[in-house]
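S1.2 Input.
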Amino acid sequence: MKNQARTLALLATVLIGSAALAQERSKPAMQAMDPSMDLRLAMRKLWEDHITYTRNYIISALAGLPDADSVANRLMKNQEEIGNAIKPYYGSEAGDKLTTLLKEHIQIAAEVVKAAKSEKKDAVAAEQKKWSKNGKEIAAFLSGANPKWSKSTMEEMLQKHLDLTTGEVVARLKKDWKADIKSYDEGHEHMLMFADTLSDGITHQFPAKFKR
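S1.3 Output.
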């Protein structure tokens, strides 16, 4: 029994020591993280907030919850954060322009939700038309800023975002929770891909800014 206890104690010491060594060795690697990865993670966070707070707003607005305005305000702040994120690369004017376009995107989204809740099909169609137009304006802005972001690709990706968001609204109104969740999951995945497309375009356009 004594020998067994000694063996277990020795094993525990070795394991603890190995874990500590591994943690210590990981510190320089984390400190030397590729700056492009920092951008990628930051961009993903911003667009995850975009998709998440959009969903929160849809849920609150359709259900008439008292937090709808607070969620809308946070969602608007997210558009400012996205605009600020591109300022180090494209300047303050470009960042403010993107924020303006994205806030219009959210304002139209709110009207789509309002019209859908009131079952006004003509109003929904009219707002969706405005929504698509705004998406094309965002795509034109992005493609004009970075040749890696082709206008057609940006238009396609943004329209898919609108379609999936609309899918959430329609499904919730029908109380089709399975379809609602499916639309959100697909929209979330799509938004991450969109965020990666943006960060990849920036790192390709400004390689000097991403040297370790």
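S1.4 Remarks. The helical segments are 2-31, 35-63, 68-90, 92-117, 121-145, 151-173, 177-205.
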